[in-house]
Amino acid sequence: MKQTRTFVIAGLAGALLGGCGKPAPAIVSGQTVPGAVTAINLEQGWSRDTQDRAWFTSFGSRLIPYQWLQHLEQAGSQERFVADKNMSALGFLTQAPTANNPDGFPVGFTRDKDAKGRMWAGLGCAACHTGEVDYRGTHIRIDGGQALIDFNGFEAALIESLSATVADSAKFDRFAKALNVSGGDRQTLQNEIVALTQKIDARHRMNQVQVPYGYGRLDAFGQIFNAVAVDFLSLPQNRRAPDAPVSFPVLWDAPHLDLVQWNGSAPNAGPGPLLAHGPLEPGAGRVVIPHRPADADAVTGDLVRGVDHDDALAHVIRQDAGSLAEHRRLADPRPPHDQDGLPGLDEVVDDLDRPLVPLLGVLEHRDRGLQRRVGAAFARGADGVRGEIGHPGGLPVVAAGSQVVG
């Protein structure tokens, strides 16, 4: 008997859809981010088209019907759930419409059509693996960087909004009218909302922990375990609290690693250990998708295949090595020189005197040994950095505290 389970899993590095023909020009540091006029890009090897597709291409995640998300209101308010203010408060990077994001959803929100033709909204890798820092009013977008989203907070807010839509007759009326649902179909819609809310809430409770993760952290490994050992196998006694959150890892080195996950447990070539979809180009990475349906009958050894073999992720897998190579061009960010008010290392050291906890960003000269020493010095505070560097010399870096420096 076929069963379908929805997995709540943090995204990992994945292969991205690539275009054909001559590669488009790469982004140059300082260029404005399309759809986010207050932010600038850094040179990382991707073109604008690749970046846009990377942010919004679906790998099969289906969280909520797309039209529902368009019109869903916040609990206790008539404001849209996906309003910029609400999404920013949850840590997402808001965007205006672009070619691959026609409705202006935040970075990492995707569209995927099921076998019945219904369009779903989901979360892609970019939701967790696109960063942005703000230095003295300059917003700097970092592809493959560390997001500051509140993943559990987002799920909780979505559950509250869906629950309120059913409980509040006026809210439900507005929602149904926006979807052009009337008559007896309204009861069907209400039943669907209840069913989806219960499903998301069950996953949320399965991954509940005593201390909330907060922004920028997730125990992806623990949630993967629960998705497979509890939800997929229908064995609630296997549940373990996913209470070892870590920061979202950067992705620019991921396609070149032999192993992924913080403990090195996941091979990065051929079928992966969890929810992989067959061989990719060697080293091309492994895709683990939040809220992706899976077919419990299609399990061979450690390989779990999705219900729709012709969906977006399967299409990615069928791409040739030339297309996958487009993703592999992602490099660590290169800050521009003396441009747009970006800091040198000496300025970052001075900022340590302020009441914040900066993180070492990117050292352009790529001296890994110095990066490690300076990183350790940052942990000791301003005196530690000055003692380690001695004479800063203005080495260009991007640094961030609680997303804001300066």
Describe the structure.
The protein is built from twelve helices and 15 strands. The chain is α+β, with helices and mostly antiparallel strands. It folds into two domains: 4-328, no CATH class; 345-405, no CATH class. It has helices at 48-56, 66-71, 84-89, 151-167, 169-178, 185-206, 220-232, 312-317, 321-328, 345-351, 368-380, 382-389, and strands at 4-7, 32-33, 36-40, 64-65, 109-113, 119-123, 130-135, 138-143, 217-218, 246-247, 259-260, 266-267, 292-300, 303-306, 404-405. Helix 4 packs across helix 5, helix 4 (151-167) packs antiparallel against helix 6 and helix 11 runs antiparallel to helix 12. Strands 2-3-8-7-15 form a five-stranded mixed sheet.
- Distance linking N and C termini: 58 Å
Give the spatial strand order of the biggest sheet: 2-3-8-7-15
- Label the overall shape: globular
Please state the structural category: alpha+beta
Total strands: 15
Note the main sheet: 5 strands, mixed
- Report the total helices: 12
The percent of residues in helical segments reads 25-40%
Low-confidence stretches: 1-20, 270-289, 295-323, 352-367, 384-406
**What series of H and E elements makes up the topology?**
EEEHEHHEEEEHHHEHEEEEEHHHHHE
**Number of individual domains:** 2
Gyration radius from CA atoms, angstroms: 22 Å
Q: Provide the residue-averaged pLDDT.
A: 73
How much of the sequence lies in strands comes to 5-15%
